[in-house]
């Protein structure tokens, strides 16, 4: 059983070349504070209450990288449980302080499960 704690973040995608316009919208219009750092795939991260909004450029297609991310209590148990049920696990770039993996549901939707390092 996967022990979900909370939504940690979600990633939305913008068209290729739209980063400057997106940054202006999210910082000037929505007034979200940007989280500084060298984020994976050139993403921008913003603080949205107690969760994060991640934004990155993507060309689109059937297997988008858009996803919600859920903080859970035991990533190893969750991975083993999903693998035993035939779910393919995907890994991505490393984020300091967070262990994580991705999987897709039968319809192609992408999900991230993560656990903060203690």
UniProtKB/TrEMBL annotation:
Superkingdom of origin organism: Bacteria
SUPFAM superfamilies: Glyoxalase/Bleomycin resistance protein/Dihydroxybiphenyl dioxygenase (SSF54593)
UniProt domain VOC: residue ranges: 6-116
InterPro entries on file: Glyas_Bleomycin-R_OHBP_Dase, Glyas_Fos-R_dOase_dom, VOC_core
PANTHER family, sorted: FAMILY PROTEIN, PUTATIVE (AFU_ORTHOLOGUE AFUA_3G15060)-RELATED
Protein name: Phage portal protein
């Amino acid at each position: 059983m996967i022990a979900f704690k909370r939504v940690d973040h979600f990633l939305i995608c913008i068209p290729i070349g739209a980063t400057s316009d997106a940054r202006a919208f999210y910082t000037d219009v929505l007034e979200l504070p940007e989280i500084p750092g060298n984020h994976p795939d050139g993403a921008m991260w913003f603080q949205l209450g107690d969760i994060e909004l991640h934004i990155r450029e993507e060309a689109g297609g059937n297997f988008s990288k858009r996803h919600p991310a859920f903080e859970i209590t035991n990533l190893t148990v969750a991975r083993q449980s999903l693998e035993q049920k035939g779910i393919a696990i995907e890994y991505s770039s490393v984020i300091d302080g967070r262990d994580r993996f991705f999987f897709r549901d039968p319809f192609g939707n992408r999900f991230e499960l993560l656990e903060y390092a203690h």
